[in-house]
């Protein structure tokens, strides 16, 4: 399992090198398209809503259920009130499951995984992190803490992106 993952990463890296030619320098070889089904990273000036979230050692996000309109750009302000690190990753349910598998592999190799993904923010104990995200697609997504054991203990939040919330505001 571990070996297979390493080989996959190696192979992928090599093929990216092989196909990276002039004009393709902006191609992010390590970005998994599926992980962006929930939308895309948002820009500061596009923010039209701020959502404050508490991440606690009770393995909960509070609140943990959001209704969002398609096209909204949200600044998530994630405050870690606990004594252990937490993270906040916006993805599909399947995307977060894949992310947890990758984290388990990284841990098995003896290290923690660094989170540079644009759909994720890691928050140290007592700190506050921010993530700006544009929800361009309708659907049901989730915010998850994929640190081993946390999601399973309940550290996830539902994000419903639908036009119905838009209708309610008009
Ligand atoms: Cu956590």
Structure overview:
With 170 residues, the chain is an alpha+beta fold. It has a single domain, classed as Cupredoxins -  blue copper proteins (Immunoglobulin-like, Sandwich), CATH 2.60.40. The protein is 24% helix and 32% strand. The chain is built from 3 helices and 10 strands, in the order αββββββαββββα. It has helices at residues 2-19, 93-108, 163-168; strands at 40-41, 49-56, 60-62, 65-68, 73-80, 86-91, 120-123, 128-134, 139-144, 156-161. It has a 5-stranded mixed sheet with strand order 1-8-5-2-3, with no helix packed on it. It has a 5-stranded mixed sheet with strand order 4-10-9-6-7. It is globular and about 45 Å long. Bound molecules: copper (II) ion. Copper (II) ion binds next to loops. InterPro entries: BlueCu_1, Cu-binding_ET, Cupredoxin. Residues 24-43 are annotated as: Disordered. This is Copper oxidase.
How are the strands of the biggest sheet laid out side by side?
1-8-5-2-3
CATH architecture level-2 label: Sandwich
Low-pLDDT runs: 1-35
Write the H/E string, N to C: HEEEEEEHEEEEH
The chain-level structural class is alpha+beta
Tell me the Rg in angstroms.
Answer: 17 Å
**Helix segment tally:** 3
In total, the number of domains comes to 1
Q: CATH class, anyone?
A: Mainly Beta
InterPro entries: BlueCu_1, Cu-binding_ET, Cupredoxin
GO molecular function: copper ion binding; electron transfer activity
Signal peptide: 1-20
Protein name: Copper oxidase
